[in-house]
Design goal:
Helix content: over 70%
GO molecular function: ubiquitin-protein transferase activity
GO biological process, one term: proteasome-mediated ubiquitin-dependent protein catabolic process
Strand content: under 5%
Number of strands: 0
Distance between the termini: 81 Å
Shape: flat
Structural class: mainly alpha
Protein name: Protein FYV10
Family: Belongs to the FYV10 family.
Low-confidence stretches: none
Number of helices: 13
Largest sheet: none
Pfam family, one: CTLH
Length: 273
């Protein structure tokens, strides 16, 4: 009896550990839907406005036939662009649903097994280990090795290659001293970050300011002041310490602080005992 209990598979624990396997595709589906909805709203509003202006101008004689044709071409161009963007969203949706199907099937296989002695569990567990290895490689930036392993094992739908590669791209840009990619990601996920009460975007803007001040050129210092007024000062009540440090950095740049520290050190060493 004790041996059976030890070998028994606790399905609830497995599902708890593998929650991210199903959660991420659903979160990405929600994000993809919001993106498609925003695209439709934006483009349809602009087309409706242009159509209304064109019809009004044509009826009251203020628009020439050439202007009407030009506006029609613009509307057609916008609708073609909308079709391309929605096609991209549809492809992404199909990919994510394929992932969901594969992952549900993968976890459903476990529900048919009851002990770790089951031969099928050994195969399932080996596939899970392969999935975790690919996940580890992706998290540590070994994207090429992760892709090669996922393709060899035929398990691309069970791992989040695209998501981790996007994250690694942002990390690489940060290591190179650029926050542009990270800020773009923050803009795409601003609602979620706001719900989490995250300070990520502020800290990225803060780092931008530091890099501008570090250059110590007149143009960059002027840009730093403008940057601080737009992105830092509005948060003086939320992040007072960082905003005060930013102001201090402008008044006392790094080289001056180092000079003052050196002077104070020399004065201390030369003072009588």
């Amino acid at each position: 009896m004790a041996d059976f209990e030890a070998a028994k598979i606790v399905h609830e624990n497995h599902l708890l550990l593998d929650q991210p396997l199903l959660r991420l595709p659903y979160e990405l589906l929600r994000k993809n839907f919001r993106s498609a909805h925003w695209i439709v709203e934006k483009e349809s509003t602009q087309v409706k406005t242009l159509l209304k202006d064109t019809a009004t101008g044509s009826l009251n004689g203020k628009s020439s036939p050439e202007d009407v044709l030009k506006n029609l071409d613009t509307m057609l161009s916008r609708m073609r662009g909308l079709k391309r963007k929605l096609s991209t969203c549809a492809d992404e949706e199909a990919r994510l649903y394929r992932q969901v199907d594969a992952r549900v099937a993968h976890l459903s296989e476990l529900s048919e097994m009851h002990t770790v002695d089951d031969v099928r569990y050994q195969e399932w567990s080996r596939q899970r280990l392969d999935r975790l290895l690919v996940d580890y490689l992706l998290r540590h930036g070994y994207s090429a090795s992760a892709v090669a392993m996922a393709d060899k094992k035929g398990m691309r739908d069970l791992v989040d290659i695209e998501t981790f590669m996007a994250a690694n791209k942002i990390r690489k840009s940060l290591e190179d001293g650029s926050v542009t990619e990270a800020l773009a990601w923050c803009n795409e996920n601003k609602k979620e970050l706001r719900k989490m009460d995250s300070n990520l975007e502020f800290m990225l803007r803060y780092q931008q300011y530091i890099e501008l001040v570090r250059s110590q050129t007149t143009d960059k210092l002027v840009e730093a002041i403008t940057h601080a007024k737009k992105y830092l000062i509005p948060y003086k009540d939320t992040y007072p310490r960082e905003v005060h440090q930013a102001a201090g950095l402008l008044a006392f740049p790094p080289d001056r602080i180092a000079s003052l520290s050196s002077t104070n050190g020399s004065s201390s060493s030369s003072s009588p005992s």
